[in-house]
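Kindly review both lines to help learners:
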Amino acid sequence: AKQGALITLSAHMPNFTNDKITKNEDGTYNFTACDFSESKDLSNQCAEQILSGGAYEKQFQAYLDIIAEYSLALQKEDVPVLFRPFHENTGSWFWWGTSISETTYRSLYRYTADYLKAKGVHNILYVYSPNGPISTEEEYLERYPGDEYVDILAFDYYDDYNTYPATSDGTFFQHLDTTCQIISSIAKKHGKLSAISETGVRVMKADGSDNEGLLVKDNPVAKSKTGTNWYQRVSDIAKKNDMPYYLVWANFGETNFYVPYKYNETHGQEMINEFIDYYNDDTSVFADGTNFYGQIKEVATTSYTNPSSYIMNPLEQAVIKKAITFRAGVNHAKSVQFTLYNPDTKKKCTLQAKKNTKGKIENEYTATLTKKQLNTLGKTDKAVLRLVVNGKVKNKLTNISLGKEKEQAPKNVFENFDFYLDDSELLKNSYSGNSAAGCSSNWLLAKKNKKDGSYGGRFHYVLDTTGNEVWTGQVKTLKNNNFSKYNAMELWVKPDGKGQKLVVQIATESGEEFEVYLTELMKQKKAQYVTIPFSSFKGKNGGTLDTSKITKFAIWCNSIVPEGHEGKFHVESSIYFDGIKAVKASKKLLKEVNKDGLIYEKSSK
């Protein structure tokens, strides 16, 4: 800060249910055994257990205490911090991502800010940063925590190359500019600043090991190949859209870096002179040119007086079988109520909430539902909980189970589409989407194209490219992780005849992803049972599949541009699935595996 730099803080928080977190003798918690990988631990529905009243709230609070201690130390020196909690929340890789609902995410973000505020922290500027690219204002605001909790509207977006060798076609800059326009416009409407909170170039290495950062040489974005200075172009787009800064991700080593480096006074990484040119450009300002610390006499603030609120306990799709204390964070309230409604029995219970003066946040309100009141409401899987503030409904949770457990698929089932209460939205919310720019996918329940039960699943996808391979996919975090009793996966699939690359993917607790391709099958339209021996799944890092620790299941579709096609390639279609489950395949059947590692059958086992 004394050198003029902006101080930014990102937090790759561990999954707070993870066993690596240990309790010290003095009651504090030790996080030193955790690393980056714990932020990608999607087990145990972490987000639903760490807010007020949750089983792991003390671990979460202990972590926030570390952030508070750091921030307060800088606060004494009048140094502000750009804090970016729960970033990239529209992706599937972090436990705070799309594996949790929009409502739960907003509660998590707001509680964090309220907790730090209660600790006396006032020098944080909160940065909201979902994934780019963004195509609409509605898309950006889906998980937005609210104006009272956000200072800077931003996004993370990388220029990705997932094949080697790769060629830059410039579409990244087009999507970057569009995203900046949308977010800058939203920020102005909300009286906020906007920024590119994380970016960089990620290029697949020649050995296919990873795409973490730039290559030492032969980068597809080098000016010698594109005629464009990548860093200057990003800066120009940010400036054009009234964004005061952009952040390039960090350099971690010789094979994992995002900013070109000097080796000595005369040699460096192949793009170092481009970066130096950008540094020397009149439009760029680095730490030595800011000159604002100690020069600002007062800071503009905005006072919010309208009621705002979020529910902390329970959360969406909760199961309530005994007495429970409802908890919410509520600002600017004169009266607070919880109402719980059972649509099956038409019965309703209204509870007056009181302010909890002993809570960890200043604005917590609580009310207790007794076992007698729960019994009077009756059993259901579709109860609705509403938070009423000053006579108006501010928050609503749906599909809460009262007096009973939710029906679950058998433990060997990855997906069969029959346990979503006839609701495609519940199906969509059970998956995390991830797509290249201009591409998209989602799941819908299908009554006609199915093999058994009430529903099949329609995987609807859009692929759009000018030539480079693009992708879209849907990822599900599994509640049951042990499939060691089985040796294969079986699924019913009805292809679309488009001939695109269909990827069936599973991931393990280690984070490694294992894949098999059904691309040849996608060239036809006939429905087919497919058995995939677990031994056919190949690890991206060359690892061995541990079937006792499978944490995720995913379907991906990647582009294959037809030979001879010129110009833009676009395909929009649907593939149908059903009965995706682990099975015990016989030795005789396993001998029928084809060159793609697949076994085609006429019927299910």
Q: What stands out?
A: The mean pLDDT is 94. The first helix runs from residue 57 to 75.
